[in-house]
Write a structure and sequence with these properties.
This protein has helices spanning 8-22, 41-50, 61-69, 82-96, 115-124, 135-143, 156-170, 189-198, 209-217, 230-244, 263-272, 283-291, 304-318, 337-346, 357-364, 366-370. It is an all-alpha fold and 372 residues long. It has 5 domains: 8-69, no CATH class; 82-150, no CATH class; 156-217, no CATH class; 230-298, no CATH class; 304-370, no CATH class.
């Protein structure tokens, strides 16, 4: 039995009703056509393509909706012009303060368009464009936007001049995080540092920005710090003690005798085992070993008998029994009654825990201690 003819007007009416119901236009996989007995959108698409049911061949559902309803189809994108692209770019710049690049995502206010698709069409010559260009090249030629893919050549002398000016202005040498270069609009220290790394823009063979400044300006490179020795560290520690009356710790800050060095970096080198050290050490351990400085992380063991002797000595000297708030223990440099009380209560340092200084005093002089 011959199927009834299809008419373009009917197909468009069904498509309009579908759009009204679903908020989008139909495609060939949308199943049955509502309001018909045996039609599906796939059959309509096939009839449009093959010319069945009194339709002319060579069309499709997507082509029909593109022509009659301006429904965008990824297989049939509309033509572009450079003027149109520049208008979108100007609007992007006015809205965001920056010019678009190929990875800027969708084009605001233009449904279905992306900057990557525009860049691709400019490159390969699609959608009415001649090809052989790019979004960056178009903006450089027509809007004077710097094209990072065609950045000008640099010279070591030029970079040194910029670095010297940066140092004069900020009292520090530039790094890749130092931002824009005022003397060179469009240049950034990040871009210059990248050129050093990849050997581009005339800077091949120079290593990195840090290596370049270390070689030409003697700037300390934290990735190539000099080796250290225990004797050197001890000499700095002695100078610190003579100057401040205290031995340095990892938090003592910069080392005046060694510009660029800090006690935290020295301690880390001792712990990790770099810069000539074997590792597993620390600044506190080094000073304890060579200068007899008390190391809070490695306190000597205690015994009940030893603490009792300190208690008796304190009573003999002061006429009072010690409390946890009695301060330093005169007979044990570096020890405090508070520290002893904590060790007695919590355990550690050879003590079992569960006791206190007050209990120990009561055991030594139960009547006198209990009467306090």
């Amino acid at each position: 039995m011959r199927r009834p003819a299809l008419y373009i007007g009917d197909i468009l009416c069904w498509a309009d009703e579908f759009h009204r119901r679903h908020g989008r236009w139909p495609h060939r996989g949308d199943g049955p056509v509502e309001g018909t007995l045996d039609l599906t959108w796939r059959r309509i698409d096939s009839a449009l393509k093959l010319g069945n049911r009194c339709l002319r061949p060579g069309s499709s559902l997507a082509k029909l909706l593109l022509a009659q309803r301006k429904r965008r189809h990824k297989g049939y994108p509309p033509s572009l012009t450079e003027t149109q692209i520049l208008g979108w770019a100007d609007a992007h710049h006015a809205r965001t303060g920056s010019w678009p690049i190929y990875s800027s995502g969708g084009i605001h206010g233009v449904r279905g368009e992306t900057w990557s698709a525009v860049d691709h069409s400019l490159r390969i010559g699609r959608r009415g464009l001649p090809g052989g260009s790019s979004l960056a090249q178009l903006l450089e030629a027509r809007r004077g936007v710097r094209n990072v893919q065609a950045a000008p050549t640099l010279t070591p002398e030029q970079v040194l001049a910029w670095a010297d000016e940066h140092h004069d202005r900020t009292f520090s040498w530039p790094t890749r995080e130092s931002g824009p270069i005022p003397q060179a609009p469009g240049e950034t220290w990040s871009a210059v540092a990248q050129a050093f790394v990849v050997g581009a823009r005339g800077l091949s063979g120079e290593g990195s920005l840090a290596q370049f400044l270390a070689r030409h300006r003697g700037v300390r490179n934290h990735l190539a710090v000099p080796p250290l020795t225990e004797e050197q560290v001890l000499a700095w520690a002695d100078a610190h003690h003579a100057r401040t009356g205290k031995w340095p710790t990892r938090s003592s800050g910069p080392i005046p005798e060694a510009p660029g060095e800090a006690w935290s970096a020295v301690d880390a080198a001792l712990v990790v085992g770099v810069r000539g050290f074997g590792g597993g050490d620390s600044l506190a351990k080094l000073l304890a070993r060579h200068r007899g400085v008390r190391n809070k992380q490695a306190l000597p063991p205690l015994s009940i008998e030893q603490i009792r002797e300190w208690v008796q000595a304190h009573h003999t000297r002061t006429g009072q029994w010690p409390r946890h708030s009695s301060g330093p223990i005169a007979d044990a440099p570096g020890e405090t009654w508070a520290g002893v009380n904590t060790a007695l209560a919590r355990g550690g340092r050879g003590l079992p825990g569960g006791s206190s200084l007050y209990r120990l005093v009561c055991e030594c002089r139960p009547v006198e201690a209990g009467s306090r």
